[in-house]
Amino acid sequence: MAHSAAAAPPGVLEQGCPIRVEHDRRRRQFTVRLNGCHDRAVLLYEYVGKRTVDLQHTEVPDAYRGRGIAKHLAKAALDFVVEEDLKAHLTCWYIQKYVKENPLPQYLERVQP
Q1: Are 44 and 56 spatial neighbours (Cβ–Cβ below 8 Å)?
Q2: What is the pLDDT of residues 16-29, one digit of tens each?
Q3: In this structure, are residues 61 and 41 in contact, taking their beta carbons and an 8 Å threshold?
Q4: Residue 68: partners with Cβ closer than 8 Å, 6 or more residues away
Q5: What residue ranges are annotated as transmembrane (predicted)?
Q6: Phi and psi at residue 13, to the nearest 5°
Q7: CA of 74: how far to CAs of 3, 15, 29, 81, 107, in Å?
Q8: pTM, rounded to two decimals
Q9: What is the CATH number of domain 21-109?
Q10: What is the DSSP letter of 14?
């Protein structure tokens, strides 16, 4: 079965649909719906203190990798940390990489070793 998403450029899903990140605070996750709503990319986090979150895991289905979807999830999660004035542990290797590649002061001052 061919996916039209395979030909989409970075930052865009199938048929020119932009990547939209949704935040589910109750489930403590950021998601991007892929291919309608059947597949999704996800970034999971947990509160490990009153004002500290652990950004634990990012997962993008194989067929959608290399399009910047994880980058959108990472940015949304870090922006949430900034907006809520939280501290963050970065268990997820991808989030660690994202912060290294995007060393914005508002991110760096909230990241805990």
Answers
A1: yes
A2: 678 899 999 999 99
A3: yes
A4: 10, 11, 19
A5: none
A6: -90, -160
A7: 25, 23, 11, 11, 11
A8: 0.85
A9: 3.40.630.30
A10: G
